[in-house]
Amino acid sequence: MPGDVPLEGPARRMIVPDERPGAGAAGPHAWENSRRGWDGLLVVSVLVPAAFVLTEDAPAPHRLLVAGLLLAIIPAWAWVGRPAVARDAYRWGIAYIALLVALFTPAVLLDPACTFALFGLCPQAFITLHRGNQAIGGVLALALPCALRFAFVDRSVGGAFNLVTIATTTVFFCVVFGGWLDRITTQSRERAELITELEASRAEVARLSAERGALAERERLAGEIHDTLAQGFTSIIMLIQAAEARPDPARHLELAARTARENLAEARALIEALRPAPLDGSPLDEALRRITGRIGDELGVPATFTVTGAARPLRPRTEVVVVRSAQEALANVRKHATPASVAVGIDYGDGEVTLHVRDDGTGFPADRPPGGAGGYGLTAMRQRAAQAGGEVTVDSAPGRGTLVTVRLPAEETA
What angle do the packed helices 231-244 and 284-299 form, to 10 degrees? Predict the structure, then answer.
């Protein structure tokens, strides 16, 4: 494949911070890495007061009821809270917080030691609801039973201290932790969506790049086949037909055999992705001289080749375009012009090289190029020149012959 065809490199998957080595197997959200920590806090904040309640000097039914209400929070998290987080289901989150309030309210009204569980319950509102106002409402709903206990059950100094502790905890989680967690989760979700969009865009760019590379390669191969095999076969057919029409076909058959050998070399060079066979390691001028001589032998007319300026080696890409353009122009001369003479010249100028192919044949109107408006030859020639940063001009008129000019930037080899 030529060097000017862009190739898409191996697809690289975007790595988010949570997926870097040593970061764990978390998903794309920034807060997922710490989910186990909050789960652990919830379990500890439930088990600690439950253990204190079970060791108190209270009737067994009272202790078992309070501890059972607290311990029921753990399966509530496993069966309702965790699915709510995993599915990002807002309604499941509301149901989970309502279930926590239903379990925690009678427990804390029956025993003040249950107040400790708020340290694990308050974060659950933010983890499951993901919305600032609703999460704060959930925290207040969880803290309300503690205030009710002080107002109606325990009006002692210790009860007042518990109320201050609960109020401080609630304010902290609502204002400080709650606002921070809400911003983190929002930013994490936006980043996850952006990463998904970027990966989709990258996949689309890779697909389009691969298609473009395949299309460019198909166009290149079509041009190579047209400029080598198709033109060679056309020459062989014309020479054989000319041999059949003459009593002494030796000369035309010899030319046909030589053309067939060169065409075979072209085919092998095309298959092996080598430089064009006319160059064959030879200088550009020698290759052009050989091509010009061959067209003269085939048509039986004078064919001259001239070099203007100081000849110098050019980049392979430029030489390929020059040779292919000369081949195509001379193929059109052979098929359409019926000339009395042909002249090919190359001009090495400052910063550019120019190829001239002139014949004194029939010519053609400017609006009707040889081979019809849809002819592939001139189109391929112009495409090759444009890809190399050059241009092709054709000057022709009926009865005045044709001049094909190809101008290309003359970048010398390093």
Answer: 30
For 112-143, letters b (16+ CB in 10 Å) and e give bbbbbbbebbbbbbbbbbbbbebbbbbbebbb
User: Are the beta carbons of 42 and 77 closer than 8 angstroms?
Assistant: yes
Q: Quick one: tokens of 140? A: 């207040």
* 342 membership: H or E segment, kind and range: strand 342-348
First-to-final CA distance of the chain: 21
The amino acid occupying position 212 is R
Place of tokens 């430029």: 318
Contact criterion met (CB below 8 Å) for 145 and 195: no
Question: What token pair was written down for 386?
Answer: 């444009």
Per-residue pLDDT reduced to its tens digit, 300-334: 899 999 999 888 888 888 888 898 889 888 888 88
What's the rounded Cα separation, in Å, for the pair 26 and 14?
15
pLDDT at 408 > cutoff 70: yes
User: What is the pTM for the complete model shown?
Assistant: 0.42
